[in-house]
Design brief:
- Among the domains are: about 1-65, 2-Layer Sandwich (Alpha-Beta Plaits); about 120-185, Homeodomain-like (Arc Repressor Mutant, subunit A, Orthogonal Bundle).
- Helix content is about 65%, strand content about 10%.
- The chain has 9 helices and 4 strands; from the N terminus they run βαββαβααααααα.
- It has helices spanning about 10-25, 45-55, 65-85, 90-100, 105-115, 120-135, 140-150, 155-165, 170-185, and strands spanning about 1-5, 30, 35-40, 60.
- Strands 2-3-1-4 form a 4-stranded antiparallel beta sheet, sandwiched between helices.
- It starts with a strand and ends with a helix.
Length: about 190
């Protein structure tokens, strides 16, 4: 039986879910971002306890089919941008549609209706967050980051970064370095 969990976006979240399932005596076959599969069934009492305990950790057990689909879309995007070795070279719409087995227009309409932003805007927000991480690690140049994140050019990345954050990538990097230096000097 699959259970879908909202806000489960990190390894720490996966660990918390595993611990909670163990505490309830539920055997699971896997725990991934946004979804876990348990072997056997879950009683209504166990489900309610799991729901309450997950809420204490900031996670939410989902019941509604639309909410589950939205979480699946978000998890595909988060996994694709933050956890994949390489972002797919195909269109994001084709990738998401293929991963979830639904027509992209259908997914896009539901996502926009529920979240109030388009899937494309959600992808851009996460790409910029990933760019911020990469800038802070200081392992890659802006050109390398642009290539890695599949931007057509450094200028395109810079324009999108500025539109989302209000800062240029280089100014953002300088701010973070000054902040880090100030913290080290305390």
């Amino acid at each position: 039986m699959k259970l879908y969990i909202k806000y489960m976006v990190s390894l720490r979240c996966k660990m918390m879910v595993k611990e909670e399932l163990k505490r309830l005596g539920l055997k699971f076959t896997y725990v991934e971002l946004g979804v876990t599969e348990i072997s056997g069934s879950i009683t209504e009492a166990q489900r309610e306890i799991l729901k309450v305990n997950l809420l204490k950790s900031g996670l939410e057990l989902l019941d509604d089919k639309r909410s589950i689909l939205i979480e699946k879309i978000k998890n595909v995007i988060i996994e694709m941008i933050h956890y994949s070795e390489e972002i797919p070279k195909t269109n994001y719409s084709d990738y998401i549609s293929e991963k979830l087995g639904y027509d992209y227009t259908y997914l896009s309409n539901i996502f926009s209706e529920v979240k109030g932003i388009t899937i494309q805007q959600y992808i851009i927000i996460h790409k910029i967050e990933r760019v911020k991480e990469l800038l802070l690690y200081d392992e890659f140049t802006l050109t390398e980051i642009s290539y890695q994140m599949h931007y057509s050019s450094v200028a395109h990345l810079s324009n999108q970064f500025k539109k989302v954050t209000g800062l240029s990538p280089s100014f953002y990097k300088q701010l973070q370095q000054k902040r880090k230096e100030n913290l080290e000097n305390l």
